[in-house]
Amino acid sequence: MPALPSTKTQASKRLSILSTEEIDSLFGLPHFTESERHIHFDLSPQEQETVDTARTITAGVHLVLQLGYFKARAQFFVVRLDYARPDMDHILTRYYPGRAMAEVGSLSKPTRLAQQRIVLALLNYRLCGGAEKQALVAFAQRSAMLSTQPKFILREVLEHLSNQRTVAPGYTFLQDLVSQAVTDERKRVTRKLDAALSAKLQQSLDALLQADDKIHLINVLKHEAKDFSNKELRQEVDRRKQLAPLHAFAQTFLMDATLSSESIKYYASLVQFYTVYKLRRMDAATARLYLLCFAFHRFRQINDNLIEAFIHLVGQFDKQAKLAAKVAMHQASEEANSNLKAAGEVLGLFVDESIAGDCPFSTVKERAFGLLEMSAFPSVSNYLRNVAFDKLDYEWTYFTVLSATIKRNLRHLFCDIDFTGRLEEAPLVTAISVMQNLLRQNKSLRQADASKFPEAVIPQALKKHILVETIEDGKKRKAVLSQ
Q1: β-bridge mates for residue 424, sequence order
Q2: How far is CA 454 from CA 131, 292, 308, 467, in A?
Q3: 212 sits in which H/E element
Q4: Distance between CA atoms of 43 and 48, rounded to whole angstroms?
Q5: Which of 43, 174, 192, 440 could form a disulfide bond with 47, CB atoms 3.0-4.6 angstroms apart?
Q6: pLDDT at 4
Q7: Are 306 and 349 in contact (CB under 8 A)?
Q8: CB neighbours (10 Å) of residue 203?
Q9: Residue 153 · residue 181 · CB < 8 Å
Q10: What is the DSSP letter of 385?
């Protein structure tokens, strides 16, 4: 097993894992409330029997104190009497009634160490010796393969020690342990990356830290879309295209290198954390690993953003069309109601005795249109015949109005998003593939081969809005409507 470094340089550069408060909660002396003292200084029959064998009141009080502190922290402490005074007062009152604090002195080192052995035996714990520390190094390295997030490794190590009923070494040892595990895991992966990276991909990764017009490419790729506006989404699409080759390589490499998703996120976050200057000063292999993980993670983040934007925009256009149809239906109903009187007068023409039987129909029509405008006849006729307003027809008519807006905002997203289904040959997946292939070649949807377009994916009610019959070379063929 590799030895853990313990030089002064190492101490000055120790990995910062926990905050001061977190360190104190794990390794600091406990600060008990009165109710907590009743819990932690409560003795089992075996513990009481052991305390009763103490030769002096000093030894007895300190043994109860050590037991209580160990139950709270699983750590041993060298305690000053003034600090522990409230706890010792509780112990005296509870287990030595009538005895005074003045009778309790400090504990000698041999007695303190002897009491630690007693506490370990009573609570079935052991110290973390040389063999245990070597085993802990191997455990930390295995944990680092699950996640190189330092706090995760430390948490796993502490939980392992607790399960093994082993007293945790000091925090500085654990810092060095975690740091070494992180370093070893990073070296393992960077060695694999060096062997797998082609010269072209190596240049692509290095180029992320280069400046173009005083703007580093990595900073451009870090930028996230502010909203779902056309400008912002087109920039996201461009960033996705730039990252696509690196993502394609990373998708296979990171799996082959058995790098966990948590480690990928952690390495990617370091690119966000470090400045370009610091990344450029790093070991090249390490920087490339961080950048590859960033490219992989950022590509997927962009992909999620584009999918979310696509769903949002489709929903917005659909909502607009439904609202327009609702307004149109309301207007049609109002117009029909307002024209009912005129419609009655039109019907009266058929029984108007002043109109000769041989009067030309064109003359009657002229009089009818004078009573009710020609454009109002369909809505009044449908109303009188109780024909339902075709909302779907109006929605698709409104989509025609929105056609230019839909093309500008959705087409580039549709072309760049990768769609997959549970069944590769599913009609919907096939239809998407046909449409994407055409649009990516700047061709019209009318040019889709009807024999290859899965008509079954289109609901019957929508076919008249999506498919149209054309005649080519004297033969009828179906084509997709293209606005």
Answers
A1: none
A2: 67, 39, 26, 11
A3: strand 211-212
A4: 6
A5: 43
A6: 52
A7: no
A8: 11
A9: yes
A10: T
> How many Cα atoms are found within 13 Å in the side-chain-facing hemisphere of 438?
19
Mean pLDDT of the chain: 86
Cα 83 to chain center, whole Å? 46
Q: Report CA-CA distances (Å) from 10 to 6, 179, 180.
A: 6, 10, 11
Strand partners, 475: 472
Answer for the pair 169, 178: CB distance below 8 angstroms, yes or no: no
Do the beta carbons of residue 90 and residue 109 sit within 8 Å? no
When pLDDT is cut at 50, 70 and 90, the band that residue 1 belongs to is: very low
Show the 3-state SS of 237-291. Answer: HHHHHHHHHHHHHHHHHHHHCCCCHHHHHHHHHHHHHCCHHHHHHCCHHHHHHHH
481 in the Ramachandran plot: left (φ > 0), alpha (ψ -120 to 50) or beta? beta
Rounded Cα distance between 217 and 212, Å, is 7
DSSP string, 20-76: HHHHHHHHSPP---HHHHHHHT---HHHHHHHHT-SSHHHHHHHHHHHHHHHHHS--
> pLDDT tens across 417-444, in order?
888 877 766 778 888 888 888 888 888 7
Whole-number Cα distances in Å, 271 to 55, 275, 295:
62, 8, 10
Residue 322's φ and ψ, nearest 5 degrees, are -65, -40
In the chain, domain spans:
8-13+129-196, 31-123, 199-300, 321-397, 419-480
Q: What is the pLDDT of residue 2?
A: 46
Residue 94, class by beta-carbon neighbours within 10 Å (0-12 exposed, 13-18 middle, 19+ buried)? middle
Single out the residue of 131, 145, 140 nearest to residue 179, CA to CA: 140
Average pLDDT score over residue span 457-466: 76
Torsion, CA 444, CA 445, CA 446, CA 449, rounded to 10: 120
The CA–CA distances, whole Å, from 160 to 71, 351, 459, 479 equal: 17, 100, 58, 66
Q: Between 343 and 298, where is the model more confident?
A: 298
Identify which of 144, 51, 126 has the alpha carbon closest to the alpha carbon of residue 92: 51
Cα radius of gyration (the chain):
40
Identify residue 357 by its one-letter amino acid code.
Answer: G
Q: Cα(283)–Cα(134) distance, rounded to whole angstroms?
A: 28
- Select from 231, 419, 439 the least CA-distant residue to 307: 419
